[in-house]
Design goal:
The chain is mainly alpha-helical. The protein has a domain of about 130 residues. It contains 8 helices and no strands. Helix 2 packs across helix 5, helix 4 runs antiparallel to helix 8 and helix 5 runs antiparallel to helix 6. The radius of gyration is 18 Å and the shape is globular. About 20% of the residues are buried.
Length: about 200
């Protein structure tokens, strides 16, 4: 689902569609939050941003190796923590109840909440660019804050030599990942999996 972050446009949606849109947005944000260790990547951001209709299509081609590694290094530098974030006392770890708030909302509340979620996605995408700064774990934290369960995130990453270097090559590490796509026989790569992509 691709949505326009505009109250007038969203107000044309019926209650069922509003609930579905919120659930889908929450699901992609939760998937983003749920990535761990070397499964975390700057490419994950696109899976959230594409909920907005004005987000370009996710990349289908690997960037040039030097650019890809620059983005990986920026990710390791600015979106890494040494420890797991602590969960607040009112965090809810019962997954099946995470969307139980939606049936209790009125239609106008659903609309307002959907706009809040979409605005959080837009800020995650655009704020670093407009402020001319790197995207950081604080941007991720602000995005996750729109989720009702308040579950903490784990921003830990492997060591620099494991994540950005060749310590675990060819089975892990950004350089090995990008090289794995170098000989893909397809035009449109699946950059969420290791290459080579199958035709």
């Amino acid at each position: 689902m691709r949505l326009l972050c505009d109250r007038e446009w969203l107000s044309r949606m019926n209650r069922q569609n509003l609930c579905s849109a919120i659930e889908e947005c929450r699901a992609v944000i939760r998937r983003h939050r749920g990535q761990r260790g070397d499964n975390r990547c700057w490419l994950d951001d696109w899976s959230v941003w594409v909920m907005l209709s004005d987000t370009p299509e996710p990349p289908k081609q690997p960037p040039p190796f030097e650019k890809a590694m620059r983005l990986c290094r920026e990710f390791w530098t600015h979106r890494r923590a040494e420890t797991v974030d602590s969960a607040p006392a009112d965090a809810n770890f019962v997954v099946r109840t995470w969307d139980d708030d939606l049936p209790r909302m009125g239609d106008s509340e659903l609309l307002t909440h959907l706009i809040l979620v979409l605005e959080a996605i837009r800020l995650h995408r655009d704020a670093p660019l407009s402020e001319r700064r790197p995207r950081t774990i604080d941007d991720d934290r602000r995005l996750y804050a729109v989720l009702p369960e308040k579950v903490s995130a784990d921003f830990r990453l492997p060591t620099e030599s494991e994540f950005l270097g060749e310590a675990l090559s060819p089975y892990a590490g950004c350089p090995a990942f990008w090289r794995s796509h170098a000989s893909c026989p397809v035009k449109d790569h699946d950059l969420h999996t290791w290459g080579p992509c199958k035709s």
